[in-house]
Predict the structure of Dynactin subunit 6.
Amino acid sequence: MASKKAGVPTNPNLKIAAGAMVCEDCELIGDITIGSRTVIHPKARIVAESGPIVIGEYNIIEELVTITNGSSPESGNGKVLIIGNNNVFEVGANVQAVRVGDHNVIESKAHVGPKVEVSSGCIVGAGCQLTMAEQLADFTVIYGSKCERRIQRERPPAQTLQIDFLTKILPNYHYLKKPNVQPASRTAAKK
């Protein structure tokens, strides 16, 4: 059980949408926005060092994941790292990407470097290292010890059932950070 009391986030630049599940025992540094129905496990670390991080809806960020918008000579300060919707970051993944689209899976212990742009529907396999500047094409799968590549026909399935399960189970075992942002209405979002 976590030793800290649940409460409103102490980071004034942290915005958590209603419906998000953010465990108290994670580290969130800098200007971070977390979308509705996103689940952040304990021991995850998200650091907005050289610019804000905006995380969309329905993402799962598991234990020991590190997501960093760090300083690099090419990026310049203030550049926003946008992570889309329906992504899964598995245990121990390290992401410093320029951008992450929708419906991606970054598997356990994978590393996505600071000059990489992950499009949509991609899978970066367990232990794979992406360190060179590149933009992954939609539906790219990187796998194996040699980081081989192929294109899949369909995007990875959404993890809605897992999110539903986690939103029921996590509050029983972990303190949660309270949401401090109400989601925009659907009609306002369409304008």
